[in-house]
Amino acid sequence: MRRDGFFLNPGCCRPPRWFHAPSGLLRSVPAVVLKAAAAALVLGAAGLLSPAVRAESVWIDVEAPPAARLSHYGLFRDAKRQIPNDGVLPYELNTPHFADYAALHRFLWLPEGTRCRYGPHGEIEFPVGAVLIITMGYVHDMRHPEQGEQIVETRLWMHRASGWIGAQYVWNDETTEARLALAGDQVPVHWVHSDGTLRRHTFRVPNRNQCLQCHGRNGILLPLGPVHARYLNRPAAYSDGTGSQLQHWAAVGILEGLPQDPAQVPRVPVWDDPSTGDLDSRARAYLDMNCSSCHREGGIGFTSGLDLRYDQREPVKFGIYKAPVAAGRGAGNGRFVIEPGYPDRSILVYRLESVDPGVRMPVTGRGLRHDEGVALIRQWIAEMDYPELTARQQQLDRRASLLNFVPSDESAGTVPSDGRP
User: Is 22 within the bounds of a domain?
Assistant: First the structure.
């Protein structure tokens, strides 16, 4: 546990599913380490850092070109264990995206005197100068995360006055430095999976063009995940108990406009925790996080008409009995994106199961099949029940069958065996 009362994951790997705790938020600084110039500044009771200390430990000029070395920013006190420096705020999401079984560590840095704003529909508006940080790593043994992990990549999302930009950094084997990798990279990784098998993989760091495929919307680059309250609205463990992550952000002064009534703040469930939501909401949350960046208005996949956002409530728009816009091997043998009751006949499952670059979905950011995620979507489709839409589709199929029937020379003019004309 950190000295400010926030829990740290001992191995700095993702904690077990039942431990819904971020690594912490703001770190308090003992007065003994403050310089004379900052001695008169008061640390808030919630542990807010003085501007002087924050400026000395971490400073990021988002308007400048990304630094060639990540150490230039001073983000981490211990990079190997992903312990951040003062002023770098760890946070967690309810349902994260799948990144080829990498453990994900998320952080936020804000310039002094700035704060985030809660928007009218639950969107989180980050101030200019804000930096979102995400690190990918592979635990050595999923059954024993305390044994540590191989840190692979850290990505920065920096909010300039002109909009967001991204920069990705690849760590060396010793986790002592990470270099800017604008052209992407490939890093061999291995780990012991939860079933005890040794797995090997080549982790692909995307280049900037590939980043645009998921993060581009109407030609604008945008981060994902923490941009909406529904993913940040989750419990967090602190020394005095468990509380709301967003309410804590508001209490320490980095978020304004949060509704007083917690019931007014939207929330998505944890995709693999049935105690947080029903099957439909968990499956929709999984698809929202992993697929809706492309399959939404303004995304590169919206030409298909498929909208996989969590709040899309029209069944046909999120795939129920929706035929593909263009046939091809990406559709397999399926007629519909989702055919209720038949996961094996649903194009959505076919593409989620595939690792073929020309078939798989998402196209970028995934090279492995997410077995647990696919199992969730399979169960969702298998238990899906839309009787009215099913009856309507069956009626359309019968009509199409009659319209497409062309009698052969032998059958033309004959009478059916049951005597009907």
Answer: no
Helix (H, G, I), strand (E, B) or coil at 238: strand
Domain that holds residue 160: 31-267
Residues 256 and 331 in one domain: no
Q: Clarify whether residues 64 and 153 are in a common domain.
A: yes
In whole angstroms, what is the distance from residue 323 CA to residue 338 CA? Answer: 9
Q: Whole-angstrom Cα distance, residue 362 to residue 295?
A: 10
Reported pTM = 0.78
Task: Identify whether residues 148 and 225 lie together within a single domain.
Answer: yes
Task: Give the residue from 217, 242, 267 where a domain finishes.
Answer: 267
Please give the Cα distance from 291 to 274 (Å, whole number).
Answer: 21
Say which residues have a Cβ less than 8 Å from residue 292's Cβ, sequence separation at least 6.
299, 307, 308, 309, 310
75 burial (CB, 10 Å; 0-12 / 13-18 / 19+) is buried
In which residue are the tokens 């917690």 written? 262
Find all residues with CB under 8 Å of 87, minimum gap 6, and list them. 26, 27, 49, 53, 54, 57, 58, 109, 110
**Same domain assignment for residues 126 and 172:** yes
Contact 120, 104 (CB under 8 A): no
Q: pLDDT (tens digit, 9 = 90+) per residue, 353-402?
A: 988 777 768 777 778 999 999 999 999 999 999 999 999 999 888 888 88
Give the tens place of pLDDT for each residue, 70-127.
999 999 999 999 999 999 999 999 999 899 999 999 999 999 999 999 999 999 999 9
Angle between helices 279-291 and 371-382 (to 10 degrees): 130
